[in-house]
Design goal:
single chain, 2 domains, 7 helices, elongated
Length: 222
Amino acid sequence: MPQRYGHLLQTQANDVLNAIRKNGFDPAEFAWEIEGTPTLRHRPSGDYFFSFDLVDYGQHQAYYCPGEDTEEEEWRGGSWQGQLSLVEQWLTNLKREIQAPDLWSLLSEQTALVQAASTDSANTPFSAAEIEKISDGVRELQAYIEKTHELDEQKHAFVESRLDYLTDAAHRQGRQDWLHTAIGVLFTVVMGLSMAPHQAKEIFRFVDDVLQAILKTQSLLP
């Protein structure tokens, strides 16, 4: 027996699936909630959804989150094609929100790193062994970025130049100065690639891991 999608026709449910694929999402990230008003929920976020309602005279109605410029928006009365175009807009809104880095959270992590490192170390030069650890860490970071992002030639060159600069800076800067440089460089990379929040956190963990290896301290990040 085919799965039911509330009042939606099978062809309409298929239209929604095609819209999801068209917008670059994995359909497995979405789940139907059929009891009551049929609602499509984005699994990873948990909070983002699109509800397909039907009012008098077969008029479609929608309630969804995130909206274009508010947390939630409502659309009253219209054709199925009108509602489907709204699904497209919702997917655009969804992609915008889940890919946006949490700049306030990153700022907090930057502050914690700077304060902890400033307390735990002087601005002394790195040793040759420490510079080697930094170089190894930068190579691992670049591999992680290339694995988790589809970089075109321009973005690849951007990431490579920024990370090469970070390695070179370790030869001429003290550890505190280098830490500030590293945070600035990584913040630029995060913004330049429009990283998702969890990806941005992994990038800043790099600095933490390098400092742990060099200073032999516990994690500086909460």
